[in-house]
Design goal:
Blueprint (H helix, E strand, L loop, with lengths): L9 E12 L2 E12 L3 E5 L6 H9 L6 E6 L2 E2 L5 H7 L1 E3 L12 H12 L4 H14 L15 H13 L5 E5 L7 H16 L3 E5 L3 H5 L4 E6 L2 E6 L1 H6 L1 H6 L6
Parallel strand pairs: 3-8, 3-9, 6-7, 7-8
Antiparallel strand pairs: 1-2, 1-4, 4-5, 9-10
């Protein structure tokens, strides 16, 4: 089962992308087109290449072959800082705050270094990002003292401070309680309603299904299913490689 769900101008085009580390092939000829405004979820077993795919998309890793186009522009050879300024924001599986800085200062770093803003404009963008991530109430708190959910939200706020058109989320719901996960789902759903295009890797499938309108399953560096979330989760191939044959 393959295909593209959703309509609209393509914001991201991944064309025959491969990534190898020596003799280890992590991604093999991946094709992925994401229309503007879509929320796309990616599932797959550990080691499938999901995080590597995000890294190739945002430029943290360089593709071994293939092309990445963003907003119609070939960005394959462009570094992550320039991709951020072009409109890509990303969170990481393990939150990486500047622990010695406050929550506001962390968001400000995203606005200054990610979006290239300065002075009052950077301050306003940082505050807006904190509001979007529901973090304004702890703006002056040292980042190193935050519990896990707040760290996850700060990671999200820093990505939002870059003013992204495309938001890449890497297992942001991992490790949270059910109530914390529900709270985060509500935030991400709100971001999607505001028009931000989302690509979300997640093992907490409940979280994905509450937000995304399209689901891709990646296994051994290859897309094995792409379509409506319910159809993908019912796919025999997905059950085989991701769910172990049953649900």
């Amino acid at each position: 089962m393959t295909g593209t769900v959703g309509t609209g101008t393509a914001l991201l085009e991944v064309d025959q992308v491969a990534k190898s580390y020596g003799a280890l092939d992590v991604l093999t000829a991946v094709d992925l087109t994401v229309p503007t405004g879509q929320a796309l979820g990616i599932v797959g077993p550990n080691g499938a290449g999901k995080s590597t795919l995000l890294s190739v998309i945002n430029g943290t890793e360089k593709a071994s072959a293939g092309t990445v186009r963003f907003g119609g522009r070939d960005v394959t050879a462009v570094g992550p800082a320039d991709r951020a300024r072009a409109g890509m924001g990303r969170t990481f599986q393990i939150p990486r705050p500047f622990t010695h800085l406050t929550v506001f200062e962390n968001a400000l770093a995203g606005a200054e270094f990610g979006a290239g803003l300065h002075g009052h404009a950077a301050d306003l963008r940082a505050l807006e990002a904190l509001e979007m991530a529901d973090m304004l109430d702890v703006a002056n708190t040292p980042a190193g003292t935050l519990p896990l959910l707040k760290r996850k939200r700060l990671e999200l706020a820093r990505a939002l401070a870059t003013d992204p058109q495309l938001l890449l989320l890497d297992e942001i719901a991992g490790g949270l309680t059910e109530a914390e996960c529900d709270s985060l789902i509500a935030t991400i759903r709100s971001l999607h309603r505001e028009g931000i295009t989302i690509i979300w890797i997640e093992h907490v499938v409940k979280a994905l299904l509450a937000v995304v309108e399209r689901l891709v399953c990646l296994a051994s560096g290859v897309i094995v299913a792409d379509g409506a979330p319910d159809e993908v989760m019912r796919s025999d191939e997905v059950r085989k490689v991701y769910l172990g044959g049953g649900m």
